[in-house]
Design goal:
The chain is mainly α. Helix content is 45%, strand content 7%. The protein has 6 helices and 2 strands, in the order ααααββαα. A two-stranded antiparallel ribbon has the order 1-2. The radius of gyration is 15 Å and the shape is globular. The termini are far apart.
């Protein structure tokens, strides 16, 4: 399955940041690959630290999600495509019985209770922060 077709990429906040970054890179006609690698590393590290752990949530306890499955699935890469430059951030956690992917609901549902330091928007918040810092470094803000 292509990572761009994963449900988590449909999260509105993630899509907005990704599209804004892509547009900025196209306008400035540079992939800024070396800079983007550090941005991707920053997003990854912060997402790993924030992602809800599967043993913490009711949904994962009772829906066939293994401990650490969502955390282990996080990927953050730089796209070097001239047509679609930017950063690709994905995660997935499939119920072993139904195949349902819990990554999106864990990303967007703010009503779930998580242990301290863990949260919804585990991809969006680090993505937004890292891209804002990248824009400042590049002088685009």
């Amino acid at each position: 399955m292509r990572r761009s077709s994963l449900k988590i990429t449909r999260a509105i906040g993630l899509r907005e940041i990704k599209e804004d970054l892509r547009q900025m890179l196209k306008e400035h006609r540079t992939l800024a690959a070396a800079q983007l690698e550090s941005v991707a590393d920053q997003i990854y590290a912060e997402a790993i630290a924030l992602v809800p752990l599967s043993e913490e949530t009711y949904a994962s306890k009772h829906a066939g999600i293994t401990p650490g499955q969502l955390q282990d699935s996080i990927q953050v890469d730089v796209s070097r495509s001239p047509r679609y430059p930017g950063i690709i951030a994905t995660a997935e956690a499939h119920n072993v019985h139904t195949g349902y992917d819990y990554a999106l609901i864990q990303e967007v549902n703010e009503s779930y209770q998580h242990s301290e330091g863990r949260q919804a928007h585990y991809l969006e918040d680090p993505f937004r922060k890292a891209v804002d810092e990248f824009y400042r470094r590049m002088g685009w803000l």
